[in-house]
Each structure stands twice: as C-alpha cells, then as structure tokens.
Description:
Distance between the termini: 18 Å
Largest sheet: 5 strands, antiparallel
Number of strands: 9
CATH class of the largest domain: Alpha Beta
Strand content: 25-35%
Order of helices and strands: HEEEEHHHHHEEEEE
Shape: elongated
Helix content: 25-40%
Amino acid sequence: MIPLNQTQITDEERWATKQTDRGRVLSERETTVKGYPALDVMIDTGSGRVRLVAIVVPGVRRYRFRFKAVDLTQFQPRDQYDEYASTFEQMLQSFAPLGRSELQGPNARLSAVLLNEEQDAEAMVSGLAFYEDFCKEEKGKYFPLEEVVRGCDIPSLADGFDPQHILNNPDYTYKLTLTDSSFEVTATPKRSGIGGFFGDGKHIYFNPKGPATRSDRVVE
C-alpha cells in the first residue's frame, strides 16, 4: 500500500522497476502521468528494448506498464512498430486509477489496498486471536486484553506485543469480548479514513468505512 503522503518515486521502487527486465538501462527519468509521480525507464535486454513506466497513486497502490519491442527487424514496415508505441503512449495518457472502494471488489486481493495503519491493525487482531487460542489451550480459559498483551503469564508469549501499542494506540481502540467458549476481538478506528477489523478466532473481517462485523468482507 502506498502511503498517503508519498509524492515521489522511492529508491526502492526505482530499483524494483529496473529489475523487472534486467538489462542495460538506456534512459531513466522521473515524470508524472495524469498528475501522479512516475518513473519512465528504457532498457536494452539484449533481445529487444523494453519501456517500463511505474506510476505511484498515494493511498492506493503502484501501477507498472510495460511495452516490449523485440528485434525491430521483425516490424516491417517500421510504421507498425511506431503504431504500437503510439498506442502505448495513448494508454498512459488515458490512465485512470481505481480507488480503494473499487479495488475492494469480491475478487480483489484485499491486502493490496490496506493502508499502513490498517495492515498494522489486521496484524494486531490476528495476533490477539492467536494469543487467546494459545492461552486457552495452556491455561484452560480466555484472558482479558490487559493480560493477553502481556502473554497470559506464559513466558514464550511475554515479549510478543508492546502493550502500549495495543492499549494506547493512536489509530485504533482494541477490545476483547469473552465467554467461556468463545471470544471476539475488534479494532475500531479512532478517526475517519481508516477501516475497522473484527475477529472471532476463525476469520478476520474488514470494513473500510468504520467498525467491522461478521457481515463484512473476510480478510483471512
């Protein structure tokens, strides 16, 4: 997930883009595509030339477009190649990224569109659920949140969480609801713009617009 405040191509993205087609870099320039920061690279692979354009959409994801031209002698007449290159350029200029809600369709890979704060919350909910199951197995009962984050007095779990990251998190309120035979763990957003999570020990559910329930989409 691309951070909301990212306005430039990072060194990591620059390296990853050039590794897509390993070869000799003929040209490389930072630019913009439809107002989004982008990297435009031309690579000689030895068997042809590849143009790669990586576009970063803050708060959503990165897109990579690839145009490979094999040995130009295969394009006869030459204007056939020029036509393909022109079509590729037109495709770039018509670029219109999908928003978060559109990327969260039933067939989308949800992890690809979670914000950094949401990824952290998902990991915390998953971790708390794992701890509860482990504590139940070892101690014969479920434990309240304040004890779970400290490992339920089980040495192997003692350092798994930073308790303050759970109990005083700036983005989420975490809560455990217990019965003798089950538990529920929630991460409820403290502000707008981030989604909530709900876990029942079997699945984790995500709601991009606020608190989550079992009626929301399953993350895992």
